[in-house]
Write a structure and sequence with these properties.
Length: 270
């Protein structure tokens, strides 16, 4: 939705892009929280924050090895404003924060197959050219029936989590296709838990509900994406925050960026 051409280059053409340390840090935090939730599901107790913190280096190194072992790995994206040392330093305190302030609020919803924690969902949706598959992973369905999504994030120039992140509901609408019949609430309560990095880490919660209209919007959009994927049609969208060399690995290719003899970078206008 942000940029069809980026979607094509990344997911259809599968052009490799440098791996992000920022994303890596979020994956590490996410895995440690996931493990703690599964421990609670088995034992009725969460691990101590120190035990969770002890996992940080282990999970960091394992995930790094996993990423570097992929066939499409071409290196790490080095960002002067987000060096790897800073990412590690800012992500690690989020473990204790999540354990002491967030996790005590939750208990996983239990199915015969186990807790709804990082639960894979497989659905089939309809489009104008036939059915197509939808695969997703639900972070957590709480025992109270709340669909919970963990987000590790930074802040904008004003020191706030952006409204775009706080108010985004499309992902939750997708997950609710599976979850609301389980819970039995047509208007499914959702909560985003933002673990906010920074000098003083904090947690922010975004609470909302998704209902039939949200789900219909998502399925309509998903069907359009599927038709475009099959039939083609991937225009670039330069009028979005994503069209920036900081956020798009394909910016230079798409925007015709060239390097002059004097070493300065210039981009052709589109």
């Amino acid at each position: 939705m942000l940029c069809p051409k980026h979607y094509k280059l990344k997911f259809l053409d599968k052009i490799p892009e440098a791996s992000s340390w920022v994303a890596h840090g979020g994956i590490v935090v996410h895995e440690i929280i996931e493990t703690a939730l599964k421990v609670f599901a088995r034992t009725g107790k969460y691990p101590d924050w120190k035990d969770m913190d002890d996992q940080f280096d282990v999970v960091w190194n394992r995930q790094q090895t996993k990423t570097q072992g992929k066939d499409d790995f071409i290196g790490w994206k080095e960002d002067a404003k987000e060096p790897v040392e800073k990412v590690r330093m800012e992500c690690r305190p989020l473990i204790r924060l999540a354990r002491e302030e967030a996790l005590p609020r939750y208990q996983p919803w239990m199915l015969d197959s186990g807790p709804v924690v990082e639960k894979r969902i497989d659905l089939e949706l309809e489009s104008a050219i036939g059915t197509f598959p939808l695969i997703g992973y639900i972070d957590l369905l709480d025992a109270s029936g709340v669909l919970v999504d963990w987000k590790t994030t930074g802040v904008n120039k004003e020191g706030n989590v952006s409204d775009r992140k706080l108010k985004g509901w499309l992902q939750n609408a997708a997950y609710s296709l599976w979850a609301w019949p389980i819970v039995g609430e047509e208007y499914l309560p959702c909560q985003k838990v933002f673990l906010v990095k920074g000098r003083v880490p904090r947690i922010e919660y975004s609470n909302f509900k998704v209902g039939p209209k949200h789900r219909k919007f998502f399925t309509d959009v998903a069907a359009e994406v599927w038709v475009s994927t099959v039939q083609g049609g991937f225009p670039a969208n330069p009028n979005t925050w994503m069209c920036n060399p900081k956020y798009c690995s394909y910016y230079a290719v798409c925007r015709g960026e060239v390097e002059d003899d004097d070493g300065s970078d210039q981009s052709a206008d589109i």
